[in-house]
Amino acid sequence: MDKAKKITGETTLGEITKQYPETAFLFKEYGLSCLDCPISQGETVGEAAEVHRLDLEKFLKDLNKAIKK
């Protein structure tokens, strides 16, 4: 995978939804329905995982798999 095309725990949800709209289904699958909320624009994947008690590594793996397609 191209290093420039990798989502990390420091990537904000706003960046992801803007650059990779194809990941929207994953946010729903993980119970994150707050993508339009202003806070989510600056919230990192790591912060969202912590707040929503998600498995960060699995979430990152799924996100990166989705953008790789």
Could you describe the 3D structure shown?
- The mean pLDDT is 88.
- The chain contains 5 helices and no strands.
- With 69 residues, the chain is an all-alpha fold.
- It has one domain (13-68).
Present the secondary structure layout.
Layout: H1 13-19, H2 24-29, H3 38-42, H4 45-51, H5 56-68
Task: Supply database-style keywords.
69 residues; mainly alpha; 0% strand
Question: How is this structure best summarized?
Answer:
The protein has 69 residues and is an all-alpha fold. Helix content is 55%, strand content 0%.
Give the strand tally: 0
Helix content: 55-70%
Amount of beta strand = under 5%
What oligomeric state do the depicted chains represent?
single chain
Principal-axis shape equals: globular
**Main beta sheet, described?**
none
Mean pLDDT: 88
H and E string: HHHHH
Number of helices: 5
